[in-house]
Amino acid sequence: MSLDDAEAAEAVMWDIAVACLALSIKFHRDVLYPLDVIYAHEFLDLAPHALTFDDLENAQRDVLEAVVFRVGIATPGAFMAELWAALPTLRLLLAFDGGWIGAQERAWAILCDVLQRPDALRYPISLLTASALSESLLRVLARKYNTTGRDGRARRLKNRDEKTLRKAAAKASRGVRLDIQEILGITNDESTRCQKWLGFAEV
Question: Which 3-state string (H, E, C) describes 48-70?
Fold first, then answer.
């Protein structure tokens, strides 16, 4: 990516970030302090580049179109909390110290990386969350197996290379990953396409 392209991408990200902030404030300014009007020029001043009123209006329109004008859609955190509550298989799989916390941290790290992409809204939040959480399960389990030297069935691992650990984690978590897809209404094809887009190795 050239310097000009990088600067353009950064400007677009700032436009979208300021637009999201403006939309959020429009929805919450009557219930959150300081309960006061925030003028357009105050939003324009937030961006490090020259952001015009028309740029801000267009960016807000882009954000609303990207979410199909459904601003009350669930967040990744809400999806993860719902999955944790609904899936005993997930709770059982991660029933070890740092299991669920580690999985959430890795899923959030993946999702934050996704936000840096210019086509971040290519897939619905539910699908991105499912893909990020599924990948984080593999990483958390692989780390556990590497530490203990045993797989999900407590069998000793002969090798602890990355491929072997990931394969063991994939085998142990397959049912849970399918449960996640089923609850969120995600097909195998959708999941595979999103995983490839995210750059994750097939399991």
Answer: CCCCCHHHHHHHHHHHHHHCCCC
